[in-house]
Amino acid sequence: xxxxxxxLAIAAWAGKDFVMPVAQPAKNYPAHDAHxxxxxxxxLDPYDQPGKGDIFSVxxxxxxxxPIFVVITNDGDETxxxxxxxxxxxxxxxxxxxPADEDDLYRRLSHPSQGSRAPLPLPLPPKIKGSVGQRALDxxxxxxFAARAVEPHSTQSGFLFFEVSGISHPLDGAQFYLTxxxxxxxxxxxxxxxxxxxxxxxxxxx
Length: 206
Hints:
Layout: H1 2-14, E1 31-35, E2 40-46, H2 50-53, E3 65-74, E4 80-81, E5 86-90, E6 96-97, H3 102-110, H4 127-130, H5 134-143, E7 149-150, E8 154-163, E9 175-179, E10 192-195, H6 197-200
Antiparallel strand pairs: 1-2, 2-3, 3-8, 4-7, 5-6, 5-9, 9-10
């Protein structure tokens, strides 16, 4: 009987679809940066712990990627455009990391042992996606931050994936930068700077 229950549990997990976490207002996350004058806040929730990572079918941390849940809340009366949004994670030793795109993730899942900041051939070889399971493909597409705007008095969210292979403690002393957000007049908002120490050591950051 225990073996039968284990098989059923594994089968149930194998069929589990990805569900995006419910986003709280960005200011509720320990790691956040609020622009009081612009009425926009960016919050971060890294998924670096095994329990949190269980929402994914793919074990991203085991293939060198750190998923970060990015939450943007617009408390103003005008739409904020995200069409030109650019993110960057800067580690304590000043290593600058840009988020992976979907093709980067497909490549890594197809070749998980490939160490990974070496240049990769473009365009994407046709067989790469075919070697990644459909559920993983769907998960990547559904999890990725894809919003193009934040409507007034609303919140948008999604995951960005940063390659951190070879970095033992990527969040300690790291800073997350977000640029390219624009107001309804087309003017850039001030860049957002979120210290990840607020997440790593929340009790030390009142």
